[in-house]
Amino acid sequence: MIRASRHGTAHAKRVAQATPTGGARFAWGRGCIYVLAALAAFALPVRAQALLPVPSGQPVELSDVLLDDNPGELWVRFRFLAPRIGDLAGQIGYDVAAIDMAHLCQILAVPYVETRGITPARVVISMSDRPVEFGTSQPGATQYFEAYRLQDSRCIWEEF
């Protein structure tokens, strides 16, 4: 079963783009059970169906989903743990991870927003090599981010 590893409200310790005053709120509810059930069918059976399939084959696990409505528009943030990302030899670099993030947007974000009936201005897919609290930085952690707008059930890359 795929489930969020944290529950509650994410609070930023410093001001960051699109972080609401009260913190982002989790959007884990009844509507996403259908998306998660579909994803579980594709997940590798190695880790109790918690890993998501991506083109690179790296282990990727959904950490949380946040709804973020600052500054006045809805952003849906999908945060993933991807322990093999980084710039060292043998790690998954940004160029490969970007393909994985686009894939995750298409297979996870599109069905998620459609089943919940929400219309976000942006979808942000992020990967981190270790758990990092939302809105904070952690020295030594590798994090990759991509933003998309959804159009006709497709993820369209947006430059930050």
Give a topology summary.
Elements: E1 9-10, E2 24-26, H1 32-42, E3 61-68, E4 75-81, H2 94-116, E5 122-128, E6 143-151, E7 154-158
Parallel strand pairs: 4-5
Antiparallel strand pairs: 1-2, 2-3, 3-4, 5-6, 6-7
Helix pairs in contact: 1-2
Describe, in plain words, how this protein is organized in 3D.
This protein is an alpha+beta fold. The chain has 2 helices and 7 strands. It has a 7-stranded mixed β-sheet, with helices on one face. The longest helix has 23 residues, at 94-116. It starts with 8 loop residues before the first strand and ends with a strand. The model is unreliable at 1-21 and 30-49 (pLDDT under 50).
Defining traits:
alpha+beta
- Class computed from helices, strands and strand pairing: alpha+beta
Helix tally equals 2
Within the largest sheet, what's the order of strands?
1-2-3-4-5-6-7
Order of helices and strands: EEHEEHEEE
The major β-sheet equals:
7 strands, mixed
Query: Low-confidence parts, pLDDT < 50 over ≥5 residues?
Result: 1-21, 30-49
What shape does the CA trace take?
globular
Distance between the amino and carboxyl termini: 33 Å
Mean pLDDT: 79
Report the β-strand fraction as a percent range. 25-35%
Helix content: 10-25%
The count of strands amounts to: 7
Tell me the Rg in angstroms: 15 Å
